[in-house]
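step: validate -> pass
step: tokenize input -> pass
step: predict -> running
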Amino acid sequence: RVSSSGGKGFAPFGSDDPMSRPTLRYPVNHHLAQLLERAVIIVGVRAGPVALEGGLLNGDEPERPGQWPRWSRFGDSWSARLTLLPHQGLELSGSRARVHSPEHRPGAGTDAWKWHLAARVERPLARGRFYALAEWARTEEADGFFVFRSLLAEAAWSRGAHRPYYRFEQSDRPED
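step: predict -> pass
step: emit ->
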């Protein structure tokens, strides 16, 4: 199966949109583990339990909610994700991306080279539903002068109106 899409959204890199997870809080690592709110064109191919996605996108990161990407920068960055689905309810993925000047909207900043690995489980458990995600992310900027890492593990068990949830996260988050 082959699919394609385009518009404003998430590039094929890293884990799912944090808003689709069991908790309503964004993780600190969302700048390391996802490429959010970009102008993207994505092509995906799936054969059995293997899916490969690739995308062209703009490198500029939104500065505020609702801000549109700079269309003049479209195509200056790329991302790719390989996903393995070896068993129902189990997903393994690895991603790589090159993002041109994500911290400088006009495009004169340094490039970011990104890696991401994740494992996710979703399955019935004890008359409820169990969810767990573990992810590792690494971003290098300025030819490796700056290296940022993230490790996140979260789990939830839902039954009826109750959902115990736990998240562990250790992320480098330098602020400008």
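step: describe -> Residues 111 and 175 are 17 Å apart (CA to CA).
step: cleanup -> pass
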